[in-house]
C-alpha cells in the first residue's frame, strides 16, 4: 500500500534542488531508500539535474508548468510516493489568492496523510510593526491602503495550512492525529545558527509555531533543517567541487535535536514514520 507524501512550498523554497538531489541519491544507490519503479516524468527536474552537474545554481521552475512530479520510493518493503501537484511554486501562491484548491490539489490533499512543508526563513517577509504605522507628534505615517497591504509570510503559511486542512475535512475540535506534518526549514546553511530547528522557527515565526502546536498532536509533527545544496554555487571553487565530485555528495539535514546528518533522504523517512 502506497503512502503519498505531499510536498508543499512557495517559489524559491528549494523544492527543485531537494528533489534533484534526492533523485540522484536514489538513482546512484547512495541511500537506504530505493526507487521501486521508474520515475514517470523527469521533465520538471531535468534542467536542474544538468545545472547541478555543471556546478550551476538551478533555475526556478516555471510557474506555468503544471505536470505532476512523483518519485516512487521504497523503504524496508514499504512504498510511498513523493508527489508535487502543480509543481511551479508560484501556483502555491494562487491557492492563497483564490482561497481554494483546483481538482489536482484536491486529489493530492485527499489522498495524502503525510505533508512535507518547505519554508525558506532566510527570505521571509515579516508583518510591519504597529509602531511603524502609528502617528506621533513629529512624524505622521499614513496607514497603508488595502491595495498596499502585503500579506506576511507568517500569515501566508498559516492560511495555507488552514485551506489544506479544510479540504482534508479536518475537525478543529480535536488536534490532528491523521495528517503527519513535517516542516523543513530549507537553505539552513544561510541561517548561520546553532539553534535547533523548532527553536529557530518559534523565534522567527512564533504565530505559525503556535498554530501548528495547537492543531497537531505532539507526536504527529516535527521541524527539521535542510540544506539540499550545502552552499551557494556563486564562485568557481564551489562550482568545481560540484562538477568534479558530483552533486549527490553535498547537502545535509539537521534533525529535531539539532544533530547533523549528510543523508538528506532521512527527511523522507521522517515524513512517514
UniProtKB/TrEMBL annotation:
Q: Which InterPro entries match?
A: DO-GTPase1 (IPR045530)
Query: Double-GTPase domain location, by residue?
Result: 6-269
Q: What is this protein called?
A: Double-GTPase 1 domain-containing protein
- Protein's organism: Mucilaginibacter rubeus
